[in-house]
Amino acid sequence: MFRIPNPTLPAAFGIVFIFTAPIVWIVLAAFKTRTDLYAIPPVWLPNFTYLEHFRVLLTENWMFLLNSVVITVGATALCMTIALPAAFGLVNFQFRAKDFLADWILSTRMMPPIAAAVPLFIVFNGFGMLDTLVGMILVYAGFNLPFAIWVGMSFFRSIPKEIIEAARIEGCSWFQTLWIVVIPLARSGIATVATFVFIFAWNELLLALFLTVRAAKTFPVVITSFVTTGNVFWELIAAATIIQAAPPVIFTLLMQRHIVSGLTMGAVKH
Q: Counting CB atoms within 10 angstroms of each CB, which of 8, 151, 183, 255 has the fewest?
């Protein structure tokens, strides 16, 4: 008997092609010479042993890649150090205007970072923190703090109150309760938050364009330099994009087990 093909399959393949074609093009272009990139007819399969673009990028821009690593790791660590106690306090402490404070923290996330670029430039210039690693760590941690606090609150709410009360009865201080009891129980959720904060900080561009010149310039800013008024170096952009995308992908794969379980924490109200 003749079976009618599933009409959704062509649409699914079309959507997959739209999203994957640019990625495939970037990967192929990273291994092509400039001549092959503009060749007619096109060179479909490049020589994957051609690593000149990666060598040039890592030789001339390794310090900016290191800046990205230091700023991202520092911002993630600082953000989580502040966010976890704040989220724990907002969930377990009772005080006036608690809901207002939580809503105010969330509202700061709604402001686009570019809106604060000029005020931050003026403040950092006045304090001598312009184009410094410490300044960028503070900025990235600050802009990711509302997200980390609110998502952390949802994970901490999923921990039964009885466990926290039992720890307090046994003589644990609030800090000990957080460090010894709550954080181990919510480690999957914390790993999820840390992964997203890492990705947001690693890929941030606009603030780095405003607040860095050279000493603290990050790798995303380097990628923009390959677009000039007279030319666009697509082969370097493609190779740099692969380098830029590799750390978040590796970090996410390493944290995948925690992320999968962490995304379901707090989803069901007991």
A: 8
- In degrees and rounded to multiples of 5, residue 151 shows phi and psi of -70, -40
DSSP 8-state secondary structure symbol assigned to residue 1 = -
In a domain, 268, yes or no: no
Q: In this structure, are 41 and 87 located in the same domain? A: no
Facing residues of 227 across strands?
232
The phi and psi torsions of 227 (rounded to 5 degrees) equal: -105, 110
- Note whether 45 and 64 are same-domain residues: no
Of 159, 148, 149, 166, nearest in space to 182 by CA = 159
Are residue 76 and residue 26 in the same domain, yes or no?
A: no
* pLDDT for the residue numbered 268: 47
Look at residue 269 and tell me whether its pLDDT is greater than 60.
Answer: no
pLDDT at 260: 65
Q: How many domains in the chain?
A: 2
Tell whether the model's pLDDT for residue 169 goes beyond 50. Answer: yes
- Dihedral-angle region of residue 131 (phi above 0 means left; psi in -120 to 50 means alpha; beta otherwise): left
Is 55 inside any structural domain? no
Length of the chain: 270
Residue 205 in domain: yes
Cα separation, 33 vs 54, in Å, equals 12
pLDDT at position 42: 82
269 falls within a domain: no
Measured CA to CA, the distance from residue 44 to residue 27 in angstroms comes to: 11
